[in-house]
Predict the structure.
Amino acid sequence: MSQFTPESRDRIYAECARAISEAGPERESLLLARLALLLFEQVADEGRCRAALADALRDLPVPSLSA
């Protein structure tokens, strides 16, 4: 299903992390919600978007200061 190579996945992950850092803690949630909506519009399939949300939430770890 994924069209990313491991290298492109790493680059996108790094860019996403950079954008989250740039947004800062006060706007992080807004950035992620806006990003999700823009990507969902690209997918244009409500069922797939809902499934992706459920997959992302499943087994989501609790943040830890030791991690």
In short: The mean pLDDT is 92. The radius of gyration is 14 Å. The helical segments are 6-23, 28-43, 46-57.
